[in-house]
Design goal:
Layout (H helix, E strand, L loop, with lengths): L8 H9 L2 H20 L6 H18 L9 H29 L8 H5 L5 E5 L3 H13 L4 E7 L2 E8 L6 H22 L1 E8 L3 E7 L5 E17 L5 E12 L2 E8 L5 E3 L2 E11 L3 H6 L2 E7 L5 E6 L4 E3 L6 E8 L3 E2 L3 E2 L3 E7 L5 E7 L14 E6 L4 E10 L3 H20 L3 E10 L2 E9 L4 H17 L1
Antiparallel strand pairs: 1-22, 2-3, 3-21, 4-5, 4-20, 5-6, 6-7, 7-8, 9-10, 10-20, 11-12, 11-19, 13-14, 14-17, 15-16, 17-18, 21-22
């Protein structure tokens, strides 16, 4: 690969983009802006910022996009500049190291090996001619590339392995580029938000997270059923939503989801996030009503009365009247425990004393704790309805991020645990004897290289 001439404008631009100085400046800029993004809360309402900083500073911060800094144009430019810097630096360096990595016939200089500090010398009572095939076979068992070169005093057997491991650092660079590219794609084209879907109902719009806006999906979500299982303490053990995805009114996907088991379709992920009770439909209470079950604490007789919103009903045994006033989505018992959907009744005794009674739908025996009661009351024919809280995300850059993490692990493993090594076994003839020198060259892991040289020297001695 031919790089631009440094004397030309394109060459000067290339040198600037490949400089370490640019890397340092961009990284420091990202660090400083990240601190600003931490000090200034992100994605709050304009009224909140005006109250906190005043109108003047609100205008300044708004112009600089500091309220949604990580999606601002200048932050994306910094990210893009860092990505370009990494690419240019890698290409600039690869233009030089590529001659070593991709050479068909690597270069060996005998003089370099003879001066190495890790060299080991042995004197063997055999001629150099008989040693040549022996040492070639020995090195071929451990190294992929072996070449023999003759010189005036004898010969040298050169061996090499791990030349491609020099690409490890470039794989790490590529992984960082993929991570940055994935983050930028997700920032521009992805979204994250929430929606609440009542049982039996359909929604197609989410409330965006960290933003006052909303987003209409290209499909609709219907909740056919919702179930929640409680521990004895009343804490939720598991909640499950039976969801159907609709496109153009047609069912596309059906799946039951629980926490950490999302529904994924077309790049959209739907997670079970929360839930909440729903009050009874007011029209249903007015039209169909509910059944009130009464047990007389005196006669032990059991009665049932049909209640509708706003309709006064006489109680048995001359116990006065009862009126269904309204339904509450939740009720905190003693200010602590949420009893869920609750009906509010108004009981009027024969002497005109009015008592407000709350009957949680999910706890039919709750009213037995009421003091000075004439009847123990409970609700029948009304099941607790819930809405399911869903987290909806789409991140088209996620595959690049996953690929980046995989490549980073692979690149770090190659860079730290695999090495490029060159070994030289130099044989000099000294009459009936031969002087054998073993040495090696490696850009990394000098201790491991020294052990390798010692190991080869021992095998040569035994051979």
């Amino acid at each position: 690969m031919k790089l631009p001439d440094k004397g030309t404008p394109s060459g000067q631009l290339w040198a600037f983009l490949a400089s370490v100085r640019l890397t340092v400046i961009v990284l420091l800029s990202l660090a400083v802006t990240s601190i600003i993004g931490t000090l200034i809360p992100q994605n709050e309402t304009p009224a909140w910022y005006i109250d906190r900083f005043g109108e003047i500073w609100f205008g300044v911060f708004h112009t600089l996009d500091l309220f949604d800094m990580y999606h601002s144009w200048w932050f994306q430019i910094l990210m893009g500049l860092l990505t370009l810097n990494i690419i240019i630096c890698s290409m600039d360096r690869l233009a030089l190291t590529g001659k070593i990595i991709f050479a068909r016939h690597p270069s060996f200089r005998r003089a370099r090996f003879l001066k190495r500090k890790n060299r080991k010398e042995v004197r063997i009572e055999r001629s150099s001619t008989s040693l040549r095939p022996l040492y070639e076979n020995l090195l071929q068992k451990e190294f992929r590339y072996v070449r023999t070169e003759a010189h005036e005093q004898g010969f040298s057997v050169f061996a090499e392995s791990g030349r491609k491991t020099r690409l490890g650092v470039y794989i790490v660079h590529l992984s960082v580029v993929l991570l940055l590219a994935g983050a930028m794609i997700g920032s521009f084209f992805g979204f994250e938000g929430y929606m609440n879907v009542a049982e039996g109902e359909t929604e197609d719009t989410i409330q965006l997270r960290n933003s006052p806006g909303s987003r209409k999906l290209d499909l609709a979500v219907r909740c056919d059923d919702f179930n929640v299982i409680f521990y004895e303490s009343g804490a939720p053990k598991e909640f499950r939503s039976d969801l159907v995805l609709l496109r153009g009114g047609r069912e596309v996907v059906k799946k039951s989801i629980v926490v950490n088991q999302p529904l994924r379709h077309g790049g959209i992920n739907i997670f079970q996030s929360s839930y909440g009770p729903l009050p009874p439909d007011a029209r249903m209470l007015e039209k169909d009503g509910v059944v009130l079950r009464l047990i007389s604490l005196d006669s032990k007789m059991e009665y049932r009365k049909k209640l509708k919103t706003g309709k006064i009903v006489d109680l048995p045994e001359g116990g006065g009247t009862i009126l269904l006033k309204k339904a509450l989505p939740s009720f905190l018992f003693m200010g602590a425990r949420d009893m869920g959907e609750t009906l509010v009744l108004e009981k009027r005794s024969p002497d005109g004393v009015v008592t407000e009674i709350k009957l949680p739908v999910a706890f039919p025996r709750f009213d037995r704790m009421r003091r000075n009661a004439v009847f123990a009351m409970g609700v029948e024919g009304l099941t607790q309805r819930y809405y399911t809280g869903l987290q909806v995300t789409r991140d088209p850059g996620a595959p690049l991020v996953y690929a980046g993490f995989i490549l980073m692990i692979a690149g770090c493993f190659i860079s730290f645990f695999m090495h490029h090594r060159q070994i030289c076994v130099d044989v000099t003839s000294e009459g009936e004897f031969s002087r054998v020198l073993v040495s090696g060259i490696s850009p990394k892991d000098p201790i491991g290289l020294e052990k390798k040289v010692e190991k080869i020297a021992e095998r040569i001695t035994r051979a």
